[in-house]
Design a protein that fits this description.
333 residues; Rossmann fold; 3-stranded parallel beta sheet; two-stranded parallel sheet; binds tryptophanyl-5'AMP; ATP-binding; ligase; nucleotide-binding
Length: 333
């Protein structure tokens, strides 16, 4: 069997990029009979980004409800909260001892922080926590704990998965073949969903479209999207058009081909936005309804996460015992 695993940080309200880039492909993958799936709320990772406890709690509820509303079958998939698995931080330490500092110096997120500080003439590590620095090791523990072969993620996570492979390789070389080497699974069509301003849709760019925005808000956001100055009747480029890419992520092939033609025929931007709005609204409406029903019952969501944690721990507990033994953390008798 294939093991598929992915995580989402509970730092805010889920957006279209999280859905198209992570949830939707992960749910599709989980429907295959020969697949075992592990999907989780990366709440330890969230602490690196926010110090607002209520935000983490609220977001955990919202993202779990989103998984369920999007059709995840929890009788077949372990859906859990990272912090319910105490074996994860313990494995993180074992991996930390196998991780070169130089490897972490090259991590994109850490380097970006250092570059920004350097440009501003500040201490290179100003504001950088050890949490940010260690981020890839914690993520490697998430992945390696469950012997995942396939990790469906957006493009921004590829480096992290390569690092997990590096760390696993070094551990295996030192202590024997305990870990499976994971691979990133990227859906080429939606590898990076653009946001309102054409950059990657991301909370940190403040350009997101919330997945469950009410229709009026959804419409307003879509109409605020940045487009070029081409007039109605002038052919438009699909290449590099955020509007087109968003449409493609929520349309089938025939609809996408029709939109491509409309661009070539010079559809007015306002009309294109209207079509995009209707398409997204239509494809999300049933899920939105389920979501609002679910979010009103936090106790049910909590029970679901508990059950997922039990399943995940049934694997993590014996595997960690094996690893402890392998590195020499053993009883004496
Ligand atoms: P996070 O919470 O930032 O994002 C969750 C997932 O959504 C994808 N994503 C996007 N995909 C397409 N277009 C976008 N605009 C877009 N924005 C976000 C991300 O690539 C990601 O797949 N480090 C991870 C969480 C994590 C994890 C893991 C993932 C922790 N441990 C183990 C996989 C395996 C993160 O910050 O995702």
């Amino acid at each position: 069997v294939q093991r598929v695993l992915t995580g989402i940080k509970p730092t805010g309200t889920p957006h279209l990029g999280n859905y198209a880039g992570a949830l939707r492909p992960a749910i599709e993958a989980s429907r295959r009979k020969d697949v075992e799936s592990f999907y989780f709320l990366a709440d330890y990772h969230a602490l690196i980004q926010t110090t607002d406890p209520l935000r983490v709690v609220r977001s955990t509820l919202e993202i779990t409800a989103t998984w369920l509303a999007a059709g995840l079958d929890t009788s077949h998939v372990a859906l859990y909260r990272q912090s319910d698995i105490p074996e994860i931080p313990e494995l993180t330490w074992l991996l930390t001892c196998m991780t070169g500092k130089g490897l972490l110096n090259r991590a994109h997120a850490y380097k970006a922080a250092v570059d920004k500080n350097t440009e501003a003439g500040e201490d290179p590590d100003a504001g950088v926590t050890m949490g940010l620095y260690m981020y890839p090791v914690l993520m490697a523990a998430d992945i390696l704990m469950f012997k995942s072969n396939s990790v469906p993620v957006g493009r921004d996570q590829i480096q992290h998965i390569e690092m997990a492979r590096d760390i696993a390789t070094r551990f295996n070389h030192q202590y024997g073949e305990h870990f499976v080497l994971p691979e990133a699974a990227i859906d080429e069509n939606v590898a990076t969903l653009p946001g309102l301003d054409g950059r990657k849709m991301s909370k940190s760019y403040d350009n997101v479209i919330p997945l469950f925005a009410a229709p009026a808000e959804l419409k307003k956001l879509i109409f605020s999207m940045v487009t070029d100055s081409r007039k109605p009747g002038e052919p438009k480029d699909t290449e590099g058009s955020a509007l087109f890419q968003l449409y493609q992520a929520f349309a089938d092939e025939a609809q996408t081909a029709a939109m491509r033609q409309a661009f070539a025929d010079g559809i007015a931007w306002g009309d294109a936005k209207q079509v995009l709005f209707e398409q997204i609204d239509r494809s999300l409406a049933p899920m939105r309804e389920r979501y609002h029903a679910l979010i009103a019952e936090p106790a049910k969501i909590e029970a679901c996460l508990r059950e997922g944690a039990e399943r995940a721990r049934a694997i993590a507990t014996p595997f960690l015992a094996e690893l402890r033994h392998a590195v020499g953390l053993r009883r004496l008798d």
